[in-house]
Write a structure and sequence with these properties.
This is ATP-binding cassette domain-containing protein. This protein is 33% helix and 25% strand. By secondary structure, the protein is an alpha/beta fold. The structure holds adenosine-5'-triphosphate.
């Protein structure tokens, strides 16, 4: 029997923006049904990488495959979900209206009510998106990423700006996604979040992979994950 293809295969990806090389011959694998965390300093290229994987940005070179298929085709087929860091796009729309609209774009969406309940969206159901707090907008963005029942979901800093209650509820949701066989690729600046959720961690710096491994492998010498991160990434702020 053939092994399942990787959830995500990135080979020799190059992205140049504004005359600079942002992603520099980067290769990465994410296993199916597992949680993969992408860590890196501000400006390392994490969001740029996700934008390439989800068809928002066209790379200058390299290849991206999702579940063995061309990434663009997988995205068009609705097999990929994405929770962006921010989106100003929804503006005046209310959370449940937005979810219903996003659900209508998919052949077999999740039922809206349980998803909204799970993420606490009913608490602010009548508030337009632009008036929601940062953490509430994150919850709506997460629901939007999941409503189409993706096989692979990209979560770009899913708990940024969330209080500890909301963060734990997102962690629990990520555990459930994994248990249901969904592949998750997330970015985070929170080392405890990476350690809690990730089966494998990739540390990226200046658009290149600096290091990868399981938390156990990366911290086998007794250092904390944060110390490993600090030792393998550059402290200079990116422009
Ligand atoms: N459209 C663009 N034109 C020029 N430069 C860009 C563009 N988009 C992103 N960049 C640059 O690419 C670099 C990587 O940005 P990216 O958003 O991918 O970083 P990141 O790792 O997600 O950072 P953070 O942790 O702060 O979210 C930054 O230096 C950014 O200024």
């Amino acid at each position: 029997m053939l092994d399942s293809p990787d959830a995500l295969e990135i080979d020799d990806l190059v992205v140049r923006l504004g005359g600079r090389t942002i992603i520099d011959s980067l290769s990465l694998r994410a296993e199916p049904g597992r949680v993969t965390a992408l860590l890196g300093p501000n400006g390392a290229g994490k969001t740029t990488l996700i934008r390439c994987c989800t068809g928002i940005l066209t790379p200058d070179a390299g290849a991206i495959r999702i579940m063995g298929d061309d990434a663009a085709a997988a995205c068009q087929q609705g097999r990929v979900g994405m929770m962006p860091q921010t989106t100003g796009a929804w503006s005046g729309v209310r959370p449940l209206e937005l979810l219903r609209y996003l659900a209508s774009l998919h052949a077999h969406p999740l039922p809206i009510e349980p998803l909204a309940e799970r993420l606490g969206l009913h608490e602010f159901a009548s508030t337009p998106y632009r008036r929601l707090s940062g953490g509430q907008q994150q919850a709506v963005n997460l629901a939007g990423a999941l409503v189409g029942r993706p096989e692979l979901v990209f979560l770009d800093e899913p708990t940024a700006g969330m209080d500890p209650h909301s963060r734990r509820s997102v962690w629990s949701l990520v555990h459930d996604l994994r248990a249901a066989g969904v592949s998750v690729l997330l970015t985070t600046h929170l080392m405890d979040e990476a350690a809690e959720l990730a089966d494998r961690i990739w540390i990226i710096d200046h658009g290149r992979i600096a290091l990868s491994g399981t938390v156990e492998e990366l911290t086998a010498d007794g250092r904390s994950l944060e110390d490993v991160f600090l030792a393998n990434t550059d402290s200079r702020m990116r422009p």
